[in-house]
Each structure stands twice: as structure tokens, then as C-alpha cells.
Design brief:
Elements: H1 3-14, E1 27-32, H2 46-56, E2 68-70, H3 76-79, H4 89-108, E3 112-117, H5 123-133, E4 139-144, H6 165-170, H7 184-194, E5 208-211, H8 218-227, E6 230-232, H9 234-240, H10 242-252, E7 258-264, H11 286-296, E8 302-308, H12 319-337
Bound molecules: manganese (II) ion.
Residues 120, 145, 147, 149, 264 line the site of manganese (II) ion.
Length: 339
Amino acid sequence: MTTFAKLNYELSEYKPNIINYPFMRKIKLVEVRSEIAAGTRGASLGIDALKIASLDKKSNFFTKFDPINVPDANNYLWKGNKHPHAKYIDGVYQVLKNVYSTVESLRLEKKFPIVLAGDHSTAAGTIMGIKAANPDKRLGVIWIDAHADLHTPYTTPSGNMHGMPLAMCIHTDNLDCQVNEPEELTIQYWEKIKNIGGEYPKINPEDIVFISVRDTEEPEDHLISKYGIRNFTTEEVRQKGVANIAQQALDVLKDCDQIYISFDVDSMDSSISVGTGTPVPNGLTVEEAIQLNAELIKDKRVCCWEIVEVNPTLDTENLMAENAFEVLEATTSSLVDNF
Ligand SMILES: [Mn+2]
């Protein structure tokens, strides 16, 4: 037996349970090693940190899938940034197009994409791909995150585009709150990004539900109140219970035909999420995150799930990835069990 076969054999001895359902063939792992839109370096290593966490746990999770790798544009980081209000937007545009076309193809094949990504900007490509495959279906989004990710080049204080994916998808510039004067070329790329998959909003702002969002800026607060976007705080999750909040979140999206769930690991508390670019206190516990995602994914309208922003270079040991892997594995199990 080769070493690799032996490793696989040994792994399969440990955890034979989740996998041998026909539905597993319908799940497709999508790996997006992008970190170009984050403010700190290292999120492109998050996927491999998840794999190390899986090996350390002796889980055979990753042996059960045949992943697709989406080309990134991290090489733009070597060239230097030319767009202060939307850093590396030319590269971000490339990655989003790649993610968009991959996810669109998978959805046309009726696959369920589980997306493992680096920086959160690429979630816009995921949403655009889901929408393109079924343009007539109303798409709702459950965004589990410390941040609202509703900035635009006109409002961002940092220029980091991982804070902008939801603005891309609702097709807003948020000029009511303009503080920056982006350059012409930046604006051209921003327009091209918003129009990937069609020159229209991919989601209604009312069809976004936030969970545990707790670190927002004024321009984002403006959009949240303008559109009445619901945010279930960590305190509400704790008071009412995870199952109750999951149901309420799904109820907000009762008129949607399909649902995408985006799980940013910084939704978890900063005490356990050291290994991510922008940790924030008062977040979810690992147990709450597991139960929340496992509950939400039982809804038959959910058609794609994504986990982002693990950055092992900021971590001590590999704790963030280990916790994130627990969420990934439990959520996938719930998906398979409830198919
Ligand atoms: Mn995010």
C-alpha cells in the first residue's frame, strides 16, 4: 500500500459516517484562494489551514470531494496598488468573474456548491453566479459576519474590497454618504464589477439578513436603515436561542425562492477568532455557529454555502481553522442528513 493510500485507509477508519449518501455527488467543493481584497496578507492560506485541521482531527472530509479550484489574482499584490479607494480592483474584477462563471456552471448542473474562500469579496461572484443560473428566482442572502460589507469605493475608509461585496450585489454606490472621490479608472472597474452577470441588482437589499453584525460604519448604517435590513445580534441569538433565530431569519426571506448563506469566521468572537483579518468582540461561540449553520442549511431553498476569511498567518497554532473546520464539517453533515 502506498503511503497516500495508507493515509486514506487510516483516515477512513476513523470517520466513516457522514459520507456515503448519493447526495454527496451533488455537493461540489469550490476553492477560491483569493486574498487580494483583504487588508492583511494570508487569507489565501485559509483553505489549506482547514485541510491541516481536518488531518489533525483525523477526519476524512476532504477525501470525499473532488474540488474545483478557481484561479485567483493574488499576483496583482506584487505589482502595487493603483486604486486607493478600491485596492486592486482590477484583480478583484478578474477573480469575481472566475467565481461567477464557476458557480453559474455548477448551479446549471444542479450541484450544491460549498465554497471555501479567502477574502470575502469573492462572495459577490458566488451570488452573481447563483443568480445567473436562475435569473427568475428571487435570491435571499443570510450574511453571518461581524461586518456588513456594504461599503463602496465612494464610502470606504480603508479601500479594502472585502468590505464591499453586498454593495456590489445590490448595485449601489451609496452616494448619499460619499466621502471619497475615486479615480475614473476605479469607477470603470466598479461599474464592470456591479454588472457581472447583467446590468441589474442580483439581490434586493430587503432580501439580506445579517446575523451577528456588530462593527459597521455610518455609510453602512445608512443603507441598513434605508432598506430596513434585519440584523439579528449576538445578544438576540443568545436570548432567544439559535433555533429560534434561524427560523426568524428564514421567515424574513419567506418570499425568496432560493437562499445563499455566507459565513465569515469573524462572526465568531475575537477570543476564538484570532486567525482572521478583522476580529471583533461580542461574537458567536463555535457551538452557536455550528448550530446556526446546521439549522439554516436544513431549509430546502438553500442552494449554496460559503465559509471565508480564515487567516492562519495571524493565528497562534491553527485554532481558527480548527474551529472553522468544525463548522464546515457539521454544516455539511446537516446538509447531507436533511437532503
Ligand atoms: Mn465579511
